[in-house]
Amino acid sequence: MSPITKMSLALAAALSLTIGIAEARKGPPEPVAFEVIDLDSDGQITAQEMSEHRSTRAADRIAKMFERADANEDGLLSVEEMQAVAPHAKKGKMRGFGRMDADADGAITRQEYETALAARAEHSKQGGKHKGHRGE
């Protein structure tokens, strides 16, 4: 399997897990006030401020996910813990778990989860396409 195919599958799996987790939340996310992103209060949002805001949000999402899903409080997420917070997810949809579990130890660390989210974000920035991908 080519590296591009592996990355595409990992990103699709991460997206599937994230969607399942988002559906498990109660209600839509709250809108973010302009002032929260405009760190220097100059009335403009720079690329740096937006980047910092996104990084903070990603860290918050990871922390909340682990707080909600890490039932045994060992700092790791197992397949069972992930399925508990996304009960509608079938076993087949949890196959992405293995792709996020970089060291194949049966658990996802915060770092592995963060890496998967970052890869998904990068994939989205690129319009969901890779160099050499058919259709480019």
Automatic annotation (TrEMBL):
<dbReference type="InterPro" id="IPR002048">
    <property type="entry name" value="EF_hand_dom"/>
</dbReference>
<dbReference type="GO" id="GO:0005509">
    <property type="term" value="F:calcium ion binding"/>
</dbReference>
<keyword id="KW-0732">Signal</keyword>
<protein>
    <submittedName>
        <fullName>EF hand</fullName>
    </submittedName>
</protein>
<feature type="signal peptide">
    <location>
        <begin position="1"/>
        <end position="24"/>
    </location>
</feature>
<dbReference type="Pfam" id="PF13202">
    <property type="entry name" value="EF-hand_5"/>
</dbReference>
<dbReference type="InterPro" id="IPR018247">
    <property type="entry name" value="EF_Hand_1_Ca_BS"/>
</dbReference>
<feature type="domain" description="EF-hand">
    <location>
        <begin position="57"/>
        <end position="92"/>
    </location>
</feature>
<dbReference type="InterPro" id="IPR011992">
    <property type="entry name" value="EF-hand-dom_pair"/>
</dbReference>
<feature type="compositionally biased region" description="Basic residues">
    <location>
        <begin position="126"/>
        <end position="136"/>
    </location>
</feature>
<feature type="region of interest" description="Disordered">
    <location>
        <begin position="117"/>
        <end position="136"/>
    </location>
</feature>
